[in-house]
Amino acid sequence: MTTTERRMLEALVCPETHAVLSYDSERQELVSRAAGLAYPIRDGIPIMLADEARRIDD
Hints:
Elements: H1 3-10, E1 22-24, E2 29-32, E3 37-42, E4 45-46, E5 54-55
Antiparallel strand pairs: 1-2, 2-3, 3-4, 3-5
């Protein structure tokens, strides 16, 4: 991932809670701990839809 791509991802927030997201490079997901959701990144595009997100268990 390039520096520009990382900066763009850092600008995104969770659409459900508006909380900061963390990037999981292994799973290619943006994780919202506040919402308990992991949003997939497909072909370099974050899919920021709750219906497409995976529920995470802490």
